[in-house]
Amino acid sequence: MLPSLKGRDDGTEVVVQPPLSQAVGYIVVVVIGLVIASVMVFVTKLLKRTVGEDNKKTEMFMTANRSVTTGLTSSAVVSSWLWSTAMLGSTLVGYVNGISGPFWFAAGCSPMIVFFAVLGISCKRKIPEAHTLLEIVRIRYGTAAHIVYMFLCLVNNLFAVANMLLGASSAISAMTGMHIIAATFLLPVGVALYTFVGGIKATFLTDYMHTFTILIILCYFSVKAFTLDEVGSLSNLFELVKAAGQRHPVAGNEQGSYLTMTSKGGILFGILHIAANFGLVIMDTSFFIKAFSASPQAVVPGYVIGGIAYFAIPWCMGTLASSVVLGLENTPVFPTFPRRMTSQEISGGLVLPYFAMTIAGKGGAAGILIITFMAVTSTLSAQVIAVSSIISFDMYRTYFNRDASDRDVIRWSHYGVIFFALFASAFSTMLHYVGVDLGWTLYMLGVLTCPGIFPTTFTILWRRQSKAAAIISPLLGMLTGIAVWLGVAYALYGEVTIATTGATVPCVWGTVASAISPLPYSVIITLFKPEYFDWADFRKEKLAFEVDTASIAGRATSFTSNIEGQEAESALSESVLKRWGRIASIWALATFLGHWVLWPLPMYASKYIFGERFFAAWIAIAIIWLWGTLFVVGLYPIIDGRKQIWEVWTALRGGEFKKVKRAAQSDTGSGSESGVATPEKVIVEKS
Q1: CA dist., res. 619 & res. 221, Å (int)
Q2: Where is the signal peptide (predicted)?
Q3: What are the backbone dihedrals phi and psi of residue 263, each rounded to the nearest 5 degrees, phi first?
Q4: Of 95, 226, 514, 644, which is least packed with CB atoms within 10 Å of its CB?
Q5: Crossing angle between the packed helical segments 100-107 and 312-328, to the nearest 10 degrees
Q6: What are residue 253's phi and psi, to 5 degrees?
Q7: Residue 448: which of 162, 642, 167, 670 has the closest Cα?
Q8: What's the 3-state SS for 368-405?
């Protein structure tokens, strides 16, 4: 999939044997997956009994009563982008392009995560009852636009999941010898189970547990690498990478060195990656669901903190792992010695697994197996709940049963969870058998995910975009992107194949065309037939079901004195939400300028090749940043959520969950439609 690496497969044939047995693979993928699912089901039931969070209610299942705190939101944001691809892909581009690859990978992720805070807080202000992005599109533009954006979002989610499963299954197969198709179908099993029962809150909690575990293992790797005698120190690692550049100069890099930001391949990937990721974030309904689930005060700080913290993961691990692999590839400690890695191994995402095997043997392989499993299941959970929300709210409730009850929507959400888990696995299997792997999907993803960037952003932020522009511009953008992608592949290589369409240059041009062309399309079409949308119209349609007020009362209304969920959001004044919007805009601009412009571009233009001290500082800062991310992901949610944790603990010790349960049963018996204890009853019982 990476034409620049053709010709590498010559030389001594060495087959790398999986360091772990198939039994280990099945234990991790199936047994541990089911154990985690069981734990999440238990936690879900515990929260229901202690603080009244009832996941049989739609608002709790889909939006966690819009009350998730900043710490858990930031952890979930990191988890949403902590794909297996983030670790496997960043090491891949580091191996191919050198030091610039992981940096551009990280810089292609953080700005749009922070930018999403702008969209999230704008939605909180304009349409606080929304559950999905598509509800917003339908209310503003009607049925035709709703169907178009439903298609765009489902394509986004499907290819995102395929990208995750292809990379994760390949890595798990390399570590254990487990059949790649078995891994593809078994990975979603546990995810479907706990998402089926727990909904979005289970997704948040699982995100936290998985991401905390992943960060612990990555931080361990960041230290373990230097305990290997062949590495030893930062100065020695510098010499190893420097020597690798002399043995195998990189075409397009300054003096062929791996130790420079002046890399043609690196900056092309950076352009491709930032465009593709804007599409992946903005057209991913799971990001909107998590924004809707956060309390109004948590949206902006949660996304800003999460976006900046995330930067360290692909930057640090991509840089460190690829540097170790490049430096030690010609030594007996490396798994493929005496040959270099083949193009198939690299494109399959095996740079990181080989790094772990090199520095820690079977223990390293086990660590990669665990983090790959946890990364793919955590992000897959968000994708599954996103698609299930489309099926239940935007298909079933909109077109099949407008008067759907709470129970009806939950039932169809469950159907959506099961259907998408099976369909995504089957689709990924099909891609595998036609010869598509992680490298191909990593490079071409943006061609299909980017057309909705500007039309969707305008839907939320620009009141003048017309209905015709919203419908036509993304479709024209997708056709433009596909035409440019395939046309450039044919023009450069004389044929359109999986190999040529997975090459860097066709994917860059196709992605940029797909992302940028809808901007002039939308503006021009709007000028021909201008419209003016009143934001107040968003509030004319009631979207929310009855809010589970018992859970809010059970938590003693931690973020507002008003115990009714929807009133809690409206309690924040318009001016406060607008101020949060300005803060989000400032952070989004600052993050883009800092991570993508002011930091890397002068280094690219200067043609600077890293010296020993600069390289040591580069790696040291990345490692420190990674450990800081460990704090944000692991400790901050505990500190921020200490009140609810204490309330759960107190309820368990005092048996108060029985009182909440009795109050709920009593309320049901009195003819309450919701079947949930009223706030007054819960307060009386707790007092």
Answers
A1: 13
A2: none
A3: -135, 120
A4: 226
A5: 160
A6: -95, 150
A7: 162
A8: HHHHHHHHHHHHHHHHHHHHHHHHHHHHHHHHHCCCCC
In the 3-class helix/strand/coil scheme, how is 301-349 assigned residue by residue? HHHHHHHHHHCHHHHHHHHHHHHHHHHHCCCCCCCCCCCCCCHHHHHCC
Amino acid at 267: I
Q: How far apart are CA 439 and CA 424, in angstroms?
A: 18
- Report the length, in residues, of the chain: 687
78 close to 567: Cβ distance less than 8 angstroms:
no
Instruction: Let me know the angle formed at the C-alpha of 169 by 166 and 171, rounded to the nearest 5 degrees.
Output: 105
Q: For residue 196, what pLDDT is reported?
A: 62
Within a 10 A sphere around the Cβ of 113, how many other Cβ atoms? 25
Task: Give pLDDT < 50 ranges for the chain.
Answer: 1-11, 64, 547-571, 657-687
Side-chain half-sphere of 394: how many Cα atoms within 13 Å? 30
pLDDT of 160: 86
Instruction: Please report the pLDDT score of residue 668 as a whole number.
Output: 42
Peptide bond into 338 cis (omega under 30): yes
Q: Are 40 and 34 in contact (CB under 8 A)?
A: no
Q: Say which DSSP state 404 is in.
A: -
DSSP state of 376: H
Helices (H) and strands (E) in the chain, counts: 33, 0
Return the SS3 of 571.
Answer: coil
Tokens standing for residue 178: 């487990």
CB 498 within 8 A of CB 440: yes
Structure tokens at 485: 């992608």
Encoded tokens for 492: 């450069």
Segments in 434-495 forming alpha helices (H)? 438-449, 453-461, 467-493
Q: How is residue 185 written in tokens?
A: 């179908």
Alpha-carbon span 83 to 210, nearest angstrom: 11
Residues 501, 495: Cα–Cα separation, whole Å: 9
- The rounded distance, in Å, linking the Cα atoms of 476 and 414 is 34
Specify the pTM: 0.83
Helix (H, G, I), strand (E, B) or coil at 165: helix
Predicted confidence at residue 141, as pLDDT, reads 93
The SS3 of residue 496 is: coil
The half-sphere exposure of 126 on its side-chain side, counting CA atoms within 13 A, is 24
If one counts every other C-beta atom within 10 angstroms of the C-beta of residue 544, the result is 18
Specify which residues 253 forms β-bridges with.
Answer: 263
The Cα 300–Cα 460 span in angstroms is 16
The position carrying tokens 């960041």 is: 222
| Residues 312/146, Cβ–Cβ less than 8 Å | no
State the Cα–Cα distance between residues 274 and 595, nearest whole angstrom: 11
Residue range 3-541+573-654, CATH number:
1.20.1730.10
Triad 139, 140, 144: Cα angle to 5°: 80
> In angstroms, what is the C-alpha Rg of the chain?
25
Residue 68 DSSP code: B
3-state SS, residue 130: coil
Structure tokens belonging to residue 104: 């551009």
- Distant-in-sequence, close-in-space partners of 63: CB < 8 Å, separation ≥ 6: 131, 200, 289, 292, 293
Type of residue at 443: Y
* CB contact at 8 A, 149 and 456: yes
| Nearest Cα residue to 510 out of 454, 453, 448 | 448
